[in-house]
Amino acid sequence: MSVLSRFTPAPAATITPAATCLHCGTPLAPGQAEFCCAGCEGAHALVSRLGLDAFYRRREAAAASDGALRPVAEPLATDFAPLARAERDGVHSLELMVSGLTCGACVWLVEQALAAEPEVLRARASLSARRLTVAWRGPASRANDFAALLGRLGFRVAPWSPACLRATEDEEGRRLIRALGIAAFGSMNVMLVSVAVWVGWDMGEATRAAMHWLAALIGLPVIAVAGLPFYRSALDALRARRVNMDVAVSIAIIATAAMSLSETLRNGPYTWFDGATALLALLLAGRVLDRAARRKARQAAAELLALQEGSVTLLHEDGTTRTVPVEQVRPGACLLIAAGERLRLDGTLDGDEGEALLDTSATTGESVPRRFATGDLLPAGAVNMGAPFRLRVTAAAADGSLAAMARLLERAEQAKSRFVSIADKAARLYVPVALAVAFGTFLGRWVWLDATWQEALVPAVAALIITCPCGLAIAVPAVQVVAVGALFRRGILVAAPTALERLATADHVVLDKTGTLTEGRPALLPDPARDPASLRAAAALARASRHPLARALARACPDAPAAEGVREVPGAGLERGAERLGSAAFCDVAEVRDEGMTLYYRAGTAPPVAFRFADRVRNDAPEAVAALHRLGLTTELLSGDGSEAVERVARMTGAGPWTARATPAAKAARIEALRAEGRRPLMVGDGINDAAALALAHVSASPGGATDLAQTASDLVLRSEGLAALPAAIAVARRAQRIARQNIAFSLIYNVIAVPAAVAGLATPLIAAAVMSSSSLIVILNALRAGREPQPWTR
Amino acid sequence: MDALILLVPLALFLGLLGLLFFLWTLHTRQYDDLDGAASRILFDDEIRRDPRSSARQ
User: Fold this and answer.
1) CA nearest A694: which of A729, A670, A677?
2) Where are the beta strands (DSSP E) in B1-57?
3) Which of A478, A438, A335 has the alpha carbon at shortest distance from A779?
4) How far apart are CA A548 and CA A571, in angstroms?
5) Helix or strand or coil: residue A208?
6) d(Cα A162, Cα A83) in Å, to the nearest integer?
7) Which residues of A441-475 are buried (b: 16+ CB within 10 A; e: fewer)?
8) Cβ–Cβ under 8 Å, residues A510 and A638
9) Contact status of B43 with chain A (Cβ, < 8 Å)
10) CA distance A794 to A487
11) What proportion of chain A, given as a percentage, has pLDDT over 70?
12) Please, which pLDDT band fits residue B11 given cuts at 50, 70 and 90?
């Protein structure tokens, strides 16, 4: 497919059969004409009013169909005004992470929509980093208007956090690109000279010497500078008394450079600077691609985290509030925790509200909210399910329980980095053998065949470079690049370098319940007796609130229009005229029993309607568990919730034996016990309580909505909600592993043929170049197969 | 062979020029958003400033 055809305008939206929403592209429910919900209709009208209709023609078909652009009708979670940076002359600038920027047309829409605002001076969005920089002349509070405008268009915005910056700023990657540029320049220019020597059989001695010196002049600095990434890694490995592929590469390159210099000095027939520089360029190209693929995954993971991050509301003594970043809060400060907000700091419940209702599923795995009394210690990571309350902070962010957990995870990560990848295993075998062959060749020629030591050096080093550290060094990274890219397109982010290899060898899956097998947030339970009209009316009210239950209600009826003039009574419910939505007491309902997860709706004197909520099992969970079994993995369920709930989920999903009321320490101990048995467990979890187990497991994964700690502890992050992608990821990883083995075997076979030729002194630089490039090409072509859809028989 | 005395340094000089240009593009961060740059080239509109069609409501 040509590059241009990807951008041919889609048929005008008005003449296509109205099967999908004109704005977000989700399939329409029966009875809907053009839009799936009121938010999309509003967004479409906004785009038209701005005169930016071209967006719908320009965006790529693939990006238009996933419904990512459906506006979420909820108030802004963050106050962006304090984040705006004041520049001179009353100009402010703001950096935002914009989720939903998936194609060039989205970038265009965002930039143009902001530029249409009269006071905006510049707006520039970066597609790969999802970073938007906007500058305007006017007060800082306009920041919220811009964020709200993007929200109405269907983009989700979050403050540009340090984590986003870390994922994007890639000093090491830039160094690699610089080295690649230098190596490419050097190899091309040296080749210019080398080809002249190869074909110039009638060339005079003096001219050939000049050519050699010229090649050395270009080649030596290039080898010194562009090879640094390899030399550094090789030194690190040798200091740790290990051997890796970079040791092999470094030895081959340095030996080749030394031998070529000696040949230049004595004006031998050939120098090998071209081989050394071309080897560097090829390997660096592989490194750069590898890094770019993983950087993409890191950025996407940082994007997921940024959407969860927010600032906290500081409550001053005089009753005024101020929004500040979490890092600035000191112990003893008082925070106002809104309904639906996640606690980011440890603290005690303060004030005379008496009690707080918290969803602690992220910290303990319990799916039913728990009540806390004044003075109780509240765990950071819990979500406020009740009325707003005051929190007296007991520890700053850097000393809190979340930070302590993060430090623990770092230590576990270091232990994991001792995993020996297949490439390093091959290097351990290869380096001594290659060195022995080269040394044997040198001794054989020098001692027994009476060659001068310079003459003996040439075939020895030729053997070293022709044993294809190139094909071998590129055998595994090429497969990794292709497989990581293929997984990325399916919404699986591979964060750790050796994650695919470990995933391929996993033999047992430990699943968390809340948030992993279940959705981890309340969902409306279906009730056949309920009137759809009352659901619609209640959902319209619910749109005005950020309370988790209200949001669950709004999700259940996405096409309900947002009601105007709704008043929120904190801790009780919502009210508009005679309509009321909220707790039993608020709606004057004689409560049957306190379930904590029920909302009542009452319009005037009509009988009240109850909406019950529960943490629902994900639709794709049973199928995903079955697919894992088909792949030959055993499963088990490990949860912090009560045994009744755990057993029910285990039965519904078919996930093997289950353990209830597992504390974080118990989860970690179970993983360690499994590893001690020699099993290779894949841990899947989303909560803070899973983080230790995730870090200890052989390989770990977390679903997209997971807490930030769980995501940083995981090797893989599933971008989509749900587990359906996990079996596919295992299939791709196993396939990649098989292809990597094939590649290594191929490189070794190649050596069996090429090395005797080099030892016999038959190899010239031309033959070496041909061998090197052909073996690399075959290895790369084979690696491309790793990205194809797994065939049914390979599963 | 006299031509070489002129042509080889000239070729090298031009190559070096290319290398310096590459390092400059790297330094000015032109490789940070490759996807965005690839599609941006297709949308050549000037940024419009039409005070009548304000996005505010």
Assistant:
1) A670
2) none
3) A478
4) 12
5) helix
6) 13
7) bbeebbeeeebeeebbbbbbbbbbbbbbbbbbbbb
8) yes
9) yes
10) 17
11) 90
12) confident
Q: How far apart are CA A726 and CA A717, in angstroms?
A: 10
pLDDT on residue B55:
42
Is the pTM value of this prediction over 0.80?
Answer: no
- What's the whole-number average pLDDT of chain A? 81
- Residue A394 banded pLDDT, cuts 50, 70, 90: confident
Across the interface, of B4, B15, B43, the residue whose CB is closest to A104 is B43
Distance from CA of A165 to the nearest CA of B (A): 12
For the record, the structure tokens of A65 come out as 């169909």
* CB-side neighbour CA atoms (13 Å) of A451: 16
Mutate to test the interface with A, among B23, B32, B52 (most CBs of A within 10 A): B32
List alpha helices for A309-355, DSSP H.
none
Instruction: Say which amino acid occupies A331.
Output: P
Q: How far apart are CA A87 and CA A90, in angstroms?
A: 7
Q: Which of A97, A98, A126 to mutate to test the interface with B (most CBs of B within 10 A)?
A: A126
d(CA A239, CA A403): 32
Q: For residue B19, which residues of chain A lie inside 8 Å, CB to CB?
A: 181-182, 185
Measured in Å, how far apart are chain B's first and last C-alpha atoms?
A: 77
The DSSP bridge partners found for residue A377 are: A348
Distances (CA, A) of B17 to A9, B25, B29: 40, 12, 19
Mind listing the pLDDT tens digit for each residue in A535-582? 888 888 887 777 778 888 888 877 777 777 777 776 678 888 888 888
C-beta separation of A670 from A510 below 8 A? yes
